[in-house]
Amino acid sequence: MEAVPGPIRRGVYFSIGAVSVTLGVIGIFVPVWPTTCFLLLAGWCFARSSRRAERWLHENRLFGRYLREYREEGIISSRVRKTSVATLWLFIGISAFLLAGRLWVVALLLLVAGAVTLHLYSLPTQARVQPTD
């Protein structure tokens, strides 16, 4: 990407960032669709293309605080974790009920939901305190 002229490179990064935000917002409403990874990718792209877009993303009322906490401290709030897991299992349950005739799909949904739940509960909810010497 270094050989690509600056304005074109910034345009590509900005475009990928904008698509990533869109995909991340979809993930807020669609279970098992990733949200955080798309928003983190958007932040990375915006940092290379547009300070204004990066600032908007990290100051966004809906998800800015959570992105900052995850980026700066690697944490997730207990409330976000509980809400995410509850929403995930609600929609997985509905999907499993509607797809009850296809047991392999239900098993896959349950496997993915279990993995996402384990991941969310593996994230710390507060910053780890570094020991002082």
Number of DSSP strand runs: 0
What is the CA-based Rg, rounded? 18 Å
**Helix share, percent:** over 70%
Query: Based on CA inertia axes, which overall geometry fits?
Result: globular
Order of helices and strands: HHHHHH
Low-confidence regions? none
Sketch the major β-sheet. none
**Proportion in β-strands:** under 5%
Please state the oligomeric state of the protein chains shown: single chain
Q: Return the average pLDDT rounded to an integer.
A: 83
* DSSP helical segment count: 6
Content-based structural category: mainly alpha
Distance between the termini: 43 Å
- Taken together, the total number of domains comes to 2
What does this structure look like?
The chain is mainly alpha-helical. The protein has two domains: 6-73, no CATH class; 78-122. It has helices spanning 6-29, 36-47, 51-59, 64-73, 78-98, 103-122. The termini are far apart. The model has no long low-confidence stretch (mean pLDDT 83).
Task: Please tag this protein with its features.
mainly alpha; 0% strand; 133 residues; 6 helices
Summarize the structure.
The chain has 133 residues and is mainly α. Helix content is 72%, strand content 0%. It has two domains: 6-73, no CATH class; 78-122.
Task: List the SSEs and their pairings.
Blueprint: H1 6-29, H2 36-47, H3 51-59, H4 64-73, H5 78-98, H6 103-122
Helix pairs in contact: 1-2, 2-3, 3-4, 5-6
